Amino acid sequence: MTTLRSILFNTAFYTNMILRMIILSPIYFLLPRKTAFFVPKGWASSSSWLFAKIVGTTFTVEGLENIPKGGYILAPKHQSFWDTFALLPYLDDPVYILKRELMWIPIFGWYVAKQRMIPVDRGARGKVMAKVIERTKVEMANGRQLIIYPEGTRRPPGAAPEYKYGIARLYRDLDVPVVPVAMHPGLFWPRRKSQRYPGHFKVRILPPIEPGLDADVFFERLMRELEGASDALLIETVRDNPHVPLPPSAIRRLEELGAR
């Protein structure tokens, strides 16, 4: 049954995305940029609805009161394709720094370009990265929320952290709060797999780390607070969903925490 539901959901998920792009494109490209954001936000909400109705997976967002007004950096754990879109409806005017290759995808790249997302060559250094930061400053000055994953790429639940120092440089140069977000969608929507699992999980938004700290101090604090919250949430999520198959990384981490 899980396999059948996974196939049905994956089919519905991509069909929903393609049809919305085709049908709503004329409206999307004619509207002002920020107003047009209702299209991707609507797709995100409908995708979460499909996930709940077909697979039986739901989520709760905790800590919305921790989100500051205006511009800030949202720093979520990154485990799944789910967390690239599911939080969009909760943000006013988000912006991503993303691989420049994504801008070359027909239709999708045009959608991204309209929202003034910031493309970057992952191998870029020096002047190129300086230009990316300057571009980001312009967007943040307009009150936008930068979404950046501190580990850079998807990691399985419970995996040893591999934070990239780039977020510390952005924290220093942008001079805005950083809001850590702990969650474990990877237990229900695993990376690099087509299987989807039913259950319920929480997205926990932590109190913001205010600007003004030394970059190294900030970096250590971010890792300590986000990993501590992630460990607590992993124990809680597995306890509440005993049927969910665990990847080896989660099993090892639970054993290290004495929770298994």
Automatic annotation (TrEMBL):
This is 1-acyl-sn-glycerol-3-phosphate acyltransferase. It comes from the Bacteria. Residues 72-186 form the Phospholipid/glycerol acyltransferase domain. InterPro entries: Plipid/glycerol_acylTrfase. Keywords: Acyltransferase, Membrane, Transferase, Transmembrane, Transmembrane helix. It comes from Peteryoungia ipomoeae. The chain crosses the membrane at residues 12-31. GO terms for biological process: phosphatidic acid biosynthetic process. Pathway: Lipid metabolism. GO terms for molecular function: 1-acylglycerol-3-phosphate O-acyltransferase activity.
